[in-house]
Amino acid sequence: MCCGSCAKCLGGTLIPLAVFGFLANILLFFPGGKVIDDNNNLSDEIWYFGGILGSGVLMIFPAVVFLGLKNNDCCGCCGNQSCGKRFAMFTSIIVAGIGFVGAGYSFIISAISINKGPKCLMGNGTWGYPFMNGDYLSDNSLWNKCDKPTDVVPWNLTLFSILLVIGGIQMILCAIQAINGLLGTLCGDCCRGEGTV
């Protein structure tokens, strides 16, 4: 398979993942599916925009670049027709690195938030983080420590888990493209001579 075709496939996969990451982060601003009165009562990690910036905006650029690699028709350089394609594949390694960092950012923010638990109104009438070191993950009876917003624990847990999975998949896809880009740089667009280089 041509390296450009592989990149196009990866780019096409990254776009819906970026959209889902973006939407999951937006939904986190409505804990339990409800609007809250004071934005200071939202979990801190929501404001780090892991899904919006990391898995969303920073992933759109690599996805668009990967999609365009298949049709890259640089005219070559130094009399070598495949030089333009090789350079494009080389630049895709750098772009894959940017995507990997963005996805990694989202992944780390999500993991921290899942471990920390959501910010909520506790039984003593103050807003805070009632859970310690992910203890609520194995014992859902602890979820009763959060009085409001209703269903904030499963809401945050579900959405941050989605962001965690999306970030992990995006990191894998960007790593695959980095390897694919390296092969494309060394061999040209089609490593087995399939099609023109």
Any low-confidence stretches, pLDDT <50, length ≥5? 73-80, 191-197
Name the strands of the widest sheet in spatial order: 2-1-3
Helix and strand content put the structural class at mainly alpha
Tally the beta strands.
3
| Total of helices | 5
Subcellular location: Membrane
Pfam families: L6_membrane (PF05805)
Main location: membrane
Family: Belongs to the L6 tetraspanin family.
Overview of the structural elements:
- By secondary structure, the protein is mainly alpha-helical.
- It has one domain.
- 60% of the residues lie in helices and 4% in strands.
- It contains five helices and three strands, in the order αααββαβα.
- It has a three-stranded antiparallel β-sheet, with no helix packed on it.
- α3 packs antiparallel against α5.
- The chain is elongated.
Please give the structural blueprint.
Layout: H1 3-27, H2 50-69, H3 83-116, E1 120-122, E2 127-128, H4 135-138, E3 146-148, H5 152-187
Antiparallel strand pairs: 1-2, 1-3
Helix pairs in contact: 1-2, 1-5, 2-3, 2-5, 3-5
